[in-house]
Amino acid sequence: MTKILAISEANTIAFHAMALIAKSKTSINAIKIAEITNSSRHHTSKVLQRLVKEGLLGSTRGPTGGFFLKKPANEIKLIEILEAIEGKVTVKRCPIDNPICPFGTCLMGDICHDISETMLNYLKENDLQYIVENVNPDKDKNLF
Amino acid sequence: MKILALSEANILSFHSIALIAAAEEKGINALKISELTNCSRNHLFKVLESLVKAGLIYSTRGPRGGYFLNKPADTIYLLDVFEALNGKVDENEICIGRNRNEKSFIFFEQLCQELTNKFLNYLKNTKIADLKDHAGKIL
């Protein structure tokens, strides 16, 4: 499947999992998150481990165990979630980061830069709380 | 990490076809294109082969050989070039590379779709003829 934006399935799982954990009143485990997001358990667990390692989530063991946010949802910017999975996100003038462009100005104008900047600004400006409050109510009313 | 999922091959294909258009009936060879685009010849050959297969360009052999547009520059769009490498674009599926299902959340999917559409519109509306003059300056 052709994609224009480099948002991977792992990224999508991470955003959804964080929103679910932020919204859930009780502890929520990896199996439940995988079910709700319709992702594989294995992939979901890997993403959750990564979020724990990067300090965004904590986890408790046992039958009632699960994941919890390490800090309030309004203090977690979306960019932190993406960067926990992908590493530092950068926006360069050249879409392939060519150090020497013989064309002078970009052949494609500003389009690549503009799109990347818009996405990056959205992720920097909005926090997890905003996402939780703006989840489509028609689609999530049965989840909690 | 980068936000746009464009490959080096995609970018190379856009630059190459602009150069080929700018060279007009004189044609331009792969060596020259690889110098001007600052990329490896092996990679370039693969990209050019895809454009030949898609019927956008053709090549001639010999000392004066090179690559030429197969049709007028104002009838080829960047989307044709993009699809020559990536396959046909399905606008309903292109947003986030993941099957939608009833249980999935919608939050910044809308933004993803908007940005994807913005880029697709650029590809749909930009003719190779529009890039020709820019590429012509460095020939």
Description:
The complex is a heterodimer of chains A (144) and B (139). Chain A has 144 residues and is mainly alpha-helical. Chain A contains seven helices and two strands, in the order H-H-H-E-E-H-H-H-H. Chain A has a two-stranded antiparallel ribbon with strand order 1-2. In chain A, strand 1 (57-60) and strand 2 (66-69) form a beta hairpin. The longest helix of chain A is centred in the first third of the chain and has 15 residues, at 9-23. With 139 residues, chain B is mainly alpha-helical. Chain B has a domain at 8-88 and 127-136: Winged helix-like DNA-binding domain superfamily/Winged helix DNA-binding domain (Arc Repressor Mutant, subunit A). Chain B is 52% helix and 6% strand. Chain B has six helices and two strands, in the order H-H-H-E-E-H-H-H. In chain B, helix 1 (8-23) crosses helix 3, helix 1 crosses helix 4 (78-86) and helix 1 (8-23) packs across helix 6 (128-136). The two termini of chain B are 33 Å apart. Classes of the chains: A mainly alpha (144), B mainly alpha (139). Chains A and B meet through helix 1, helix 4 and helix 5 of A and helix 1, helix 5 and helix 6 of B.
Index terms:
heterodimer, A: 144 residues, mainly alpha, two-stranded antiparallel sheet, 2 strands, B: 139 residues, Arc Repressor Mutant, subunit A, 6% strand
User: So, CATH architecture of the domain at 9-87 and 127-138 in chain A?
Assistant: Orthogonal Bundle
* Helical fraction of chain B: 40-55%
CATH-defined fold name of the domain at 9-87 and 127-138 in chain A: Arc Repressor Mutant, subunit A
**Name of the CATH class of the domain at 9-87 and 127-138 in chain A:** Mainly Alpha
> Most extensive chain contact?
A-B, 54 and 46 residues
CATH architecture term of the domain at 8-88 and 127-136 in chain B: Orthogonal Bundle
Number of helices of chain B: 6
Mass-distribution shape of chain B? elongated
